[in-house]
Design a protein that fits this description.
180 residues, mainly alpha, Cytochrome Bc1 Complex, Chain D, domain 2, two-stranded parallel sheet, 7 helices
Length: 180
């Protein structure tokens, strides 16, 4: 298990690493709703307060407000409507590139994220339903390579070069289905 964790961290540390590459290294199909190897995922406490704040202790606290995105991202809106076809396309991208760490059900319990600190985001938590599109696009585009995420050791790769702008919006559209 330790060797697999080292392999995942090494892959994530390389620029351009994708979930497809991680899957090729360590293929463990995840059953829908399966708990991580350490046990069940505890439900998040109820979310109260703003989704975005100037100061926050996220990612130390899963239920803390998220940091404000840079101005270039703050007002962005997803230009893609949630039609069945667009959601299916987003699901395909999520399954190929994101589920390895975030889990098939978006709970942050994928096998590639088991040894990561901080853990991958659990998209089923109430705060994720309140985050603006610009925040989501910032996180998917820049990954964990920017403050404050880089300071916490986030291993999330930036997807701005691996996925087109449309593909990033499609995966965000699909990620929204986890907290509905």
């Amino acid at each position: 298990m330790l060797l697999a964790g080292v392999a995942v961290m090494t892959c994530l540390g390389l620029s351009g690493c994708t979930g497809k590459q991680i899957l090729a290294m360590r293929h463990h199909p995840e059953q829908p709703g399966a708990a991580p190897s350490g046990g069940a995922v505890a439900p998040a406490p109820p979310f109260t307060g703003p989704a975005i704040a100037a100061t926050t202790d996220y990612p130390k606290s899963e239920n803390a407000p998220r940091p404000q995105p840079p101005a270039a991202f703050a007002s962005l809106k997803n230009p893609i409507s949630p039609t069945p076809d667009m959601l299916a396309k987003g699901k395909d991208i999520f399954t190929a590139d994101c589920a390895i760490c975030h889990g098939a059900a978006g709970m942050g319990n994928g096998p590639g994220g088991a040894s990561l600190t901080p853990k991958p985001a659990n998209f089923t938590t109430p705060i994720h339903g309140k985050l603006p599109d610009g925040y989501w696009f910032w996180r998917v585009s820049e990954g964990g390579q920017v403050p404050p995420f880089s300071a916490s050791g986030s291993a999330m790769p930036p997807w701005k070069t691996a996925l087109t702008e449309q593909q990033r919006w499609l995966v965000i559209l699909y990620e929204h289905t986890f907290h509905q």
